[in-house]
Amino acid sequence: MDLAELQRLMDELYGAADTERGIPSTVAWLCEELGELAQAVRKGTREQQLHEFGDVLAWLASLANQLDISLDEAMHRYVTDPP
To answer: Pick from 1, 40, 59, 72: CA 20 to 30 A from residue 7's CA?
Structure first.
């Protein structure tokens, strides 16, 4: 699955609910998932890490969708002019 497909999937599955929830709440959920990923990286199993990576990607895609941002476009600078 590429980034555009991820964004389409998240929109299909959760777009209406995520839009209703709003950007501030989505940011809060994303931050919570990042914390869970950090804990899984430090102390979790590979299965837990895989689960949390998926959650972070899902919430990141949801936030990008709400802001009308293409994750593909956001990552393009790493191809053309990496920091």
So the answer is: 40
Following CA atoms 16, 11, 34, 20 in sequence, which dihedral angle do they give, to the nearest 10 degrees? -10
**Which range of residues forms the domain containing residue 56?**
3-80
Question: What pTM did the predictor assign?
Answer: 0.93
Separation CA 61–CA 72 (nearest Å): 11
Tally of structural domains, the chain: 1
Tokens describing residue 58: 């899902």
25 to 19, 20, 44, 66: CA distances (angstroms): 10, 10, 26, 11
Residue 60's nearest CA partner among 19, 20, 24, 31 is: 31
The parts of the chain modelled with pLDDT lower than 70 are: none
